[in-house]
Amino acid sequence: MARGKVYLVGAGPGDPELMTVKAKRLLSEADVVLFDRLLSPDMLKGLENAELIDVGKSAGDHKLTQEEINQLLISKAEEGRVVIRLKGGDPYLFGRGGEEALALLEQGIPFEVVPGVTSAIAAPELAGIPVTHRGITSALTIVTGHEEPGKDSPLQWNILAKLNGTLVVLMGVSRLEKNVAALISGGKPTRTPAAIVEKGGWPEQRMISGTLENIAALAKEAQIEPPAILVVGDVVNLAKKLGRKRIAIFRPESQLQESADLALEYGFQPVCAPAITLEKKPLPDNLKMRLDRAACIVFTSANGVVMALENETIRSGLKEKIVFSIGPKTKRALEKHGISSEVPEEYSSEGLEKLLKNRCQNILFLRSAQGSQYLSDDLRKAGLKIDDIPLYDVKGSDDPRLDHLISHAATIDIFAFTSSSTAKYLVKRASVLGREEQLRDAMAKARIAVIGKPTAAELDRLGIRVDITPEQFTFEALLQAVQRYEFQRFE
């Protein structure tokens, strides 16, 4: 039987889209894939015909020793199979790919190395830190923060401390305090900028920045976990301008993905944490009578549209009515059902009154039970007859993503509130978890963006400062306003 071949393939820092074209092609042709622990599961999708073997190693937990991995590569190749050794980052940068290559060479097994994007450069870069930058540094040193015990030539941190340029320390979370202390002891100034980038290239990527003096404490407070890298040097300061800002989105599950995709388009890193859930309410027995009585129907949200049009009485009752929608998203939701609607230029009682003037006397709102009353109250003051039918209740979420965000609130740059309910339930949940003070501290340091007067009023009631309110009450308008605000901060 002909011997097979082994490919030592670099998978990059985490994002499957950062894998090379060659790496993806080889994976599609593989018979066997030995993969690391710190890889995205998405990289292995579509490989049902290959034998997948998890050989990942973490501190104190080795599924297989390196010698066993070497032997497994050899035995699978000797069976005449195409074998992929899929490794995070680059195979030859602290990936022990060289050891595997030598073991294969000794047994006469054909092999090929496929370089990968190394996290030593990619993770800082994705966090807004160029490892070299003209006028700041033209040198880069990459070291491991977790050396093999008994190594003949251990790292000399006192020498590293005296080097100019950027220092990147991989795999050093467990020894962060000791490594930082060694740099300071070697003469590195305590004020030197430093950052920890966790899960670089993953959706959960986050960065903690400070100085050598406090970076270990900040990382401990933020509960940083592997994989994470330490970056030391003046280039860390560039992240303030170049880093992708983390924006917290608290919308209900049904709206999260669309909002996250939009945030990515505008250059933000979305952190999805639904603070509210929607619970449908029973409709009143006199629904038809109230629909017949109304000349105009007003929808204030896409969620309301979806729930309302599930009901045949409402669907048929909209015929011959003038329909208004507050916002383009609500309008689009109606259009999906073949219903035309008018949208006020200004999403306010004044804007709606302009559209209704001399056209409607009896108006029916179909919206959430917690929907702001300022629209209907102001229209009543203008002499119009207003009716309200609540379609759904807004309740607090117990989603684990919300709890995770609250525990890591200090890593959020922008808190985006699309309704008063999202703000109210975020603070309420933080209080239940005993972390309200920490949340408020984080929000005081971040930027707060809101949609609409009621949301701004709720934050004022909660004692939280509002920085950004877009003129149009849409999530896209909010993102545009935040983008302008961030640009102006660094002009």
Compute the number of structural domains: 4
Measured as a percent range, the helix fraction is 25-40%
Low-confidence stretches: none
Strand order of the largest sheet: 3-2-6-1-7
How does this structure look, described?
There is one protein chain. The chain is an alpha/beta fold and 491 residues long. It folds into four domains: 5-117, Tetrapyrrole methylase, N-terminal domain (Cobalt-precorrin-4 Transmethylase, domain 1); 121-242, Methyltransferase, Cobalt-precorrin-4 Transmethylase, Domain 2, CATH 3.30.950.10; 246-275 and 397-489, Rossmann fold (3-Layer(aba) Sandwich); 278-396, Rossmann fold (3-Layer(aba) Sandwich), CATH 3.40.50. 36% of the residues lie in helices and 21% in strands. Strands 3-2-6-1-7 form a five-stranded parallel beta sheet, with helices on both faces. Strands 8-9-12-10-11 form a five-stranded mixed beta sheet, with helices on both faces. The chain has a five-stranded mixed beta sheet with strand order 15-19-18-16-17. The longest helix has 15 residues, at 475-489. It is elongated, with a radius of gyration of 28 Å. The model has no long low-confidence stretch (mean pLDDT 90).
